[in-house]
Each structure stands twice: as structure tokens, then as C-alpha cells.
Amino acid sequence: MSLLRSGIAFAAVILLAGASCATAAEAEAGAHAANRSAIVMFLVFAAGTLLITYWAANRTRSAADFYAAGAGISGAQNGLAMAGDYMSAASFLGISGLVFASGYDGLVYSVGWLVGWPIIMFLIAERLRNLGRYTFADVVSFRLEPVSIRTLSALGTLTVVAFYLIAQMVGAGKLIELLFGLPYLYAVMIVGTLMIFYVALGGMLATTWVQIIKSCLLLGGATVLAFLVLVKFGFSPAALFKAAIAEHPKGAAIMRPGTLLSDPISAVSLGLALMFGTAGLPHVLMRFYTVADAKAARKSVLYATGFIGYFYVLTFIIGFGAIAFLMNDPANYHVGPNGAYDKVTGLIGGTNMAAIQLANAAGGSLFLGFFSAVAFATILAVVSGLTLAGASAVSHDLYLSVIAKGKISEDKEVRVSKIAAVAIGVLAVYLGFIFENQNVAFMVGLAFAIAASCNFPALVMSVFWSGTTTRGVFIGGLLGLVSSIAGVLLSPAVWVKTFGFASAPFPYDNPALFSMAIAFGGIWLFSKTDKSKRAVLDKAGFPAQFVRSETGIGAAGAIAY
Amino acid sequence: MRANAALIEAIGRDPHFQTLVRRRTRFALALTALTLIIYFGYIAIVAFAPQWLGVPIGGGMTLGIPIGLLVIIAAFVLTALYVHRANTQYDALTRQILEEIK
After folding, report:
1. A559·B98 Cβ contact <8 A
2. Cα separations (Å) of A121 from A223, A304, A465, A534?
């Protein structure tokens, strides 16, 4: 444990150095009175979570502890933690910024982020809990041949985690640079260091509590912010909307859909990616193993859906509040020499800073500091969940099953997972550094498209269709993975806007409609035509899998009746 | 697990198991279809008839606001419906199956 203690001390030193560095930067810039309170509040959060990590590390002994917190998390706690995994700083700042810029479109967008949760409930949650132990690959390889299936699942997991992580790391660096006055690289390194500590030392137990604390902070902070907005308008939404229409350059147009979804195929494709991608996110799926049984898994989804839905309603109010509070005050804007300013794009820090600027305008600098710290905590929680999912895919799927063919001790497996967590953390910092000046906004959409086109079809087909074979899932899943990546890279948003080519070979911004069809069609076709000996085994394994997936009979600790 | 082959076959033939699977599958598929219809119906309105969501309903509000909120509420209510039925009916059936194989 002395290693653990010195590790935590090292993290504290890094943080303090970062804080003093930020204070120096602040003194130089002579700006942002909120910085100091933001830094103090963040240090309190970091110290608290490191203490929790220390506590969790002492309770994390077995593989079940490390990957699944010993299945000892309650349904309500897990619901909060799932919401914590899902509500990223990017979605909070991005959606409130979208509402700020175009009004109603933000609501359309946020609805898409919610509707995946009922799907998880109806199709995935209980069966995942009944069939698996630590990763979603446990479920897919339940009756299929483990080496190729786990290779595919790990590939799907690691690609989703990589793109999601890059987007979060770059966003984190920029945000912290802006809010705390820290240099970009330093900010990325602090995020990387803390997440390595949480995951490598405290495993799922520490990661879960980081998520729970972050969820409470974010939901609490957003509630207060929405409350401050509504107080100003006497709790009358109509008065808020009237004020926003009066301020916004688009006027009454902010109360109806704009041009966000002008192309129906892209709209449907994005909808599919959000809906079924949510049900294929490895870090979300992994959370179902932290609860005792299928009943608690159901409760988790119900809580998560409630919290996330509530959160998006708050985000909508906050976006409109930002229009009403910020647009009439030039102090919030880059103002031209003639005193004119663009009420949308001229906002200091960009439209994604609308919620943060609103925290200052509605609640003062102390509240701004609090919100900055919450944003930092939010990022940390999301990247920790991703890192744990990636590390588990490396140790439990790749190392244990593919490389060692199941012949390593549990201790060694956990050790490999911890090493993988450190490696993923270091890699994430490095990628954050490389992609600093790249446009990475498309990467979260890409992560969802891959999850919907590789992980989700593999999971659904292996659980529900008795005819699914190893060859079918392997080839179909791979086709889904490749086609979703290709579709995003060749789309207008990336090929033209990011790479600078003249026209895009793939005309739609999201490939999920096509890549999901390719994946499901591929799994069906290559299963149907599979005449191998393995295919006979695969199909013969279905009845036993079916009984267990429907009842939980035989699942490790899954029945508590 | 192999020793349990007979047990699994017995459960598979159990009428309670068949009832459980039939009821739950039907309900889950109906709710999934309903979720898809509600969400993609909403997206279809946004894509093809955005003006309709902009119809004023008084006090600066437009029809789109309550409709958007209803989609969010529907997601939660449908989830809650499933959880309620699972907690009452499906768990009871599962318990019965467990009793029978004891």
C-alpha cells in the first residue's frame, strides 16, 4: 500500500503545481476573478475523489472487485453513475450552446440522446446482466467461439473508446485552458493523471463513486442555474421565451426547428446512431455488472433515463436563459470598433461557453467558479469510465481469452488491466496533445456510429437469433465497424470541412443507416451460409443461452429471490 | 454447465417459462416499436413539417415545446412501464420457474 500512498501523494503534488501555475497565469493575465474559486473547488473535488480512490483501492482485491465493484452497487447508485458516464461536458456545453445559437434545434438534438435508454431497457439490460460478468463480449461469446468474437468486441470497444476519448481530452484541454487559465498540455496531463489514479488504483468502485459525485454536482449545479433563470422571469416559461425571442437575432424562429435536420436521410441516420449507439457503448454496458441482479439492472436504467431526461430539460432552459441574460450585454462579447457585435458567434469563448457565461451572469463569480469545477469533474468522470472500459477489453477480452486462452491467474488479469489503464491514460494524453488544433467535434458522432454498427448488432444478433454463428458475427461486425468509420471519414463534415477536399464521396453526415444495415445484413448472410463445424456448435448452444438470458438461472450471483 | 443440460431442457419445456418468454417478448417489442414510432415520428415532423411545430399556442410558446417535452417524458414513462411490469409479473413467473426446478 506504500506504492498506493506515494502515488496519491504524487497526484496531489501535480495538482498543487498545476494550481500554482494557474495562479501565476491568472496573475499575468490579471483576469478571471473566478479562477481562484474554481481552482479551490476543483482541488476539493480532486482531494475528495483521491481519498475515495484510496478507500476503494483497499477494497479492490479480486477481478470481480476491479471490473464490477463486486456487484455491490445499488440500482439507484448505478443509475446515477450511468447518467454520470453519459452526461459529458461536451453534451452539456454543446447542447446548451446549440440552444443558445439556434433555439429549438437544441431540443431536437437532445431528445436523440435520450431515446437510446428505453431501448437498452427493453432489449439489453436484463439479458446483459444475466449472461455476462465483466464486459459485453462475455455475452456475445457466451455460445460463440471466444477468440474471434472477443477480438472483434475488443476492437469495437477500443475504437469507440479511442474516438470518444480524443474528443473528450481535446475538449477538456480547451475548456480548462479557458476556465482555469492553465496551459492546454498541462490541463490534458492533469486529466490523464487523475483518471489513471481512479481507474488503475480504485477500479470500478472508485470510478463509480467519481461518477456518482459528478452526477450530483452536475445535476445540482444545472438545477440551481435553471432556477436562477426562472426566478428572473417569475417562474413563467412564457416570459422567458418572450424575452429570448426579443433578444435573439433570429427572433421567433428560435421557437421552431431550423436547418439542423434539413436532410431527412442524415436526420434518420443520426437518430439511429444516437438511439442504438447508446445501447452499444462499452462503458455504459459494463455498468450493468456492478449491480446484484436483473431487477437492480432495470432500476439502474429507470433512474438513468429519469436523470438524463431531467438534465436535458434543464439544458434547454439554460440555453434559453443564456439568450435572455447574455445577448443584451456587450461585456459578454467580442465587440468591434464601432460597438457592434455578433450576438451568437461573438460570445467570448464561443457558443459552447453559453452555459458557463450564464453561470457568471446569473450567479456571480463564485457560481462561475463552482460551474467551472463541475465542468472539470464532469470531464474526469467520463474519461475514467471510458478508460476502465478500454482497460477491461484489453485484459479480460484480449489478454485473458485471446492471448492466454484463459490460462492466467485472476491476479495477473487484474494486473494487466491496471497496466492497460495506465497505457490508455498515457496514450489519451498523447492523442490529446496531437489533436490539439484539429477539429474533433465529429469524433463523438463517430463513436456512436461505430457502437451502433459493430457492438450493438453483435450483441442483439447473438442474444436473440438462434441462427447466429461465430463467422456471421465476426464478418458482419467487422463490416459494420469498417463501413461506419469509412462513412464518417468520407462524409462532408470530415472529408470537406476537416480534410479540405472539394466534395465528399459519401453524401450524408452520419453513416449509421447504411453501416447498421450492412452489419445486420452481414451477420445474417454470413451466418446463414456458414456450413462449418463451429456453426453447428454455435447453434446448439442457443437453448441454454436463451434460458439463462431470460431467467438468470446459472448466472453468477444474478438471482436474489 | 454441461451437467445442467437436462435442467435447461426441463425449463425450456416449462409452461411458465414459455408464458414468461412470450409475454415479455411481446411487451418489449411493442414498447420498442412505440419508442421508434414516437422518436422517428417526431424527427419526421422536424424534417418535413417544421412549420407545424412553430404554430404559436399563446404566451410566446409554440406547439413544438410541449411536443418535444412529451417525447422526453414518453421515454421515461415507457421505461417505467416496463420496469413496473417486470417487477410484478415477470419476476413472479421467474420465481415460479425456480420453485419448480428445486
Report:
1. yes
2. 26, 11, 19, 32
Is the residue at A557 inside a domain? no
Alpha-carbon span A155 to A398, nearest angstrom: 9
**d(C-alpha A207, C-alpha A205), whole Å:** 5
pLDDT digits (tens, 9 = 90+) for A167-181: 999 988 888 888 888
B51 — contact with chain A (CB < 8 Å)?
yes
* Structural Rg of chain B based on CA atoms: 21
User: In chain B, what percentage of residues exceed pLDDT 70?
Assistant: 95
Q: Where are the beta strands (DSSP E) in B27-79?
A: 56-58, 61-62
Q: What is the CA radius of gyration of chain A?
A: 23
Q: In this structure, is residue A560 part of a structural domain?
A: no
User: pTM of the predicted model, to two decimals?
Assistant: 0.91
Phi and psi, residue B62, nearest 5°:
-120, 165
Give me the residue from A238, A299, A551 closest to B59, CB to CB.
Answer: A238
Residue span of the structural domain in which A40 resides? 2-551
Q: Are B67 and B42 contacting, i.e. CB atoms less than 8 angstroms apart?
A: yes
Residue A267 CA, distance from chain mean position: 21
Neighbours of A339 (CB within 10 A): 7
Q: Does a structural domain hold residue A558?
A: no
Does the residue A282 lie in any domain?
yes
Chain A residues whose CB is inside 8 A of the B78 CB are: 118
ipTM of model: 0.94
Q: How far is B67 from chain A (nearest CA, A)?
A: 10
Residues of A in contact with B70 (CB under 8 A): none
Residue A248 phi/psi, 5° resolution?
Answer: -75, 135
| Cβ contact, residue pair B83, A299, below 8 Å | yes
* CATH at A541: 1.20.1730.10
What is the domain count for chain A? 1
**Residues of chain A neighbouring B58 (CB-CB closer than 8 A):** 238
